[in-house]
Specification:
There is one protein chain. The chain has 291 residues and is mainly alpha-helical. 55% of the residues lie in helices and 3% in strands. It has 14 helices and three strands. A three-stranded antiparallel beta sheet has the order 1-2-3, with no helix packed on it. Strand 2 and strand 3 form a beta hairpin. Helix 5 crosses helix 9 and helix 6 packs across helix 10. It is globular.
Length: 291
């Protein structure tokens, strides 16, 4: 069975993304968003007018499409019209939607301990421990290779993390012990956490399922996702008085503002701050005569 031929317009867009060294996920996302716009338009996307873009965004909003998806389509369509079609004036008619900054879900130390103990098997216990113990994204955990473990310097090498940047993450003695336990059991050749096919890494979907299974077994009522482990890592470090700029480096955040979000959920830090109302009360005690 022959594959469906690619249109010259799509081929040109793919070539434009390839020249700019876009990752495969961006390729797929951009093509998908342009395809969605084309379906809404009902004709070739290169025939679109400014009013079509406005109506498309209105349609997305009315359909209840979430802000991240709308912004993804804006980025894709801006690229399509500005680069592929060389019609930069069209980009002016696409508006990014402001995403609400929500407080992330954070687990307590006791809940983290229960979650790790409830992991479905030694591989997932080591993988979940890496996500929490080093503050890694799920994509970074599954992409770890055996050669990324630097036990002499106690570091984990993260290749091409978010933003296609390499960095080092912390490797605690306890995490190293868990990884060594897992290595002795499975003897992985390349990928630290192999998938069903040993030549391929664990998938993010498999990791996600393991997190949900562990949360259910640990009877944790909070909404737990793989990213919850990373949120908890950052928050717990902040509560232990770790400098927020160091946490930024460990997380691989490009902007300090992103890391500063955790100051809103570091409850231990918040509870230890003395309210100015208490200072007033102390001052009044000093002013008023005793008795």
């Amino acid at each position: 069975m022959s594959e469906k031929p690619i249109s010259p317009l799509r081929r040109r867009m793919i070539e434009d993304m390839t020249v700019r060294n876009f990752v495969e996920k961006t390729h797929n996302d951009y093509i998908r968003h342009v395809r969605t716009f084309t379906a809404f338009l009902g004709r070739a996307p290169d025939t679109a007018a400014p009013e079509d873009l406005r109506l498309f965004q209105l349609h997305q909003t009315q359909a209840g499409v979430r802000a991240p998806s709308i912004n993804g389509s804006v980025a894709a369509l801006r690229f399509f019209f500005t680069v592929t079609l060389d019609r930069p004036e069209m980009a002016r008619h696409l508006t990014f939607v402001r995403e609400p900054r929500r407080i992330p879900v954070v687990l307590s130390l006791e809940e983290i301990a229960r979650l790790l103990e409830a992991a479905p098997g030694p591989e997932y216990k080591a993988a979940l421990s890496a996500a929490y113990g080093a503050g890694l994204r799920v994509s970074e955990v599954v992409a770890l290779k055996v050669s990324d473990i630097d036990s002499e310097r106690m570091l984990l090498r993260i290749e091409q993390g978010k933003g296609r940047k390499d960095r080092f993450a912390m490797l605690s003695p306890r995490l190293l012990e868990l990884l060594r336990d897992w290595y002795r059991i499975a003897r992985p050749a390349v990928w630290l956490f192999p998938g069903r096919d040993p030549l391929l890494p664990l998938t993010t979907r498999q990791f996600n399922r393991a997190v949900h299974a562990a949360a259910d077994r640990a009877a944790i009522k909070k909404r737990v996702t793989p990213h919850t482990l990373r949120h908890s890592f950052a928050t717990h470090l902040l509560e232990e008085k770790t400098d927020v700029r160091l946490i930024q480096v460990l997380l691989g955040h490009a902007k300090l503002d992103t890391t500063a979000l955790y100051t809103r959920v570091a409850t231990k830090t918040i509870s230890e701050v003395m309210s100015p109302l208490e200072h007033i009360a102390l001052k009044l005690k000093e002013i008023r005569p005793s008795g």
